[in-house]
Amino acid sequence: MEVTIIFKDGTEMAAEKNGTCFILPQKPAFPDDLSEVTVESGEDTRVYRNAVLTECASVDGRCWFTFTEESALEKTIRELREANDMLTECILEMSEMIYGE
């Protein structure tokens, strides 16, 4: 079954659907923003919120992948890691200002 994958930034990709996987002739450069990914076929439309891209396999040069939605726990962990990275960067900058290193 042929589907169209539409990303939040308007990027569109035509792909083949096999079960829960999507297949492209080669691995594309996916957009960074996966907060909304829409998959349309002639039969239905599925919208993934906070999508996570999972590569299933690379077979015969073709890229097989699927999307899942980020759970509330995964989102919280990601946000905490981002906050921790920002605080670490601030601490390092303050250290350089104080100690000149």
Give the tags.
101 residues; alpha+beta; Thrombin, subunit H; 2 domains; seven-stranded antiparallel beta sheet; 1 helix; 7 strands; 44% strand; elongated
Write structural notes for this entry:
The structure is a single chain. The longest helix has 28 residues, at 72-99. This protein has 101 residues and is an alpha+beta fold. The protein has two domains: 1-70, Beta Barrel (Thrombin, subunit H), CATH 2.40.10; 71-101. A seven-stranded antiparallel β-sheet has the order 5-4-1-2-3-7-6, with no helix packed on it. The protein is built from one helix and seven strands; from the N terminus they run E-E-E-E-E-E-E-H. It has one helix at 72-99, and strands at 2-7, 12-18, 21-24, 36-40, 45-49, 51-59, 62-69. The N and C termini lie far apart (59 Å).
In short:
By secondary structure, the protein is α+β, with helices and mostly antiparallel strands.
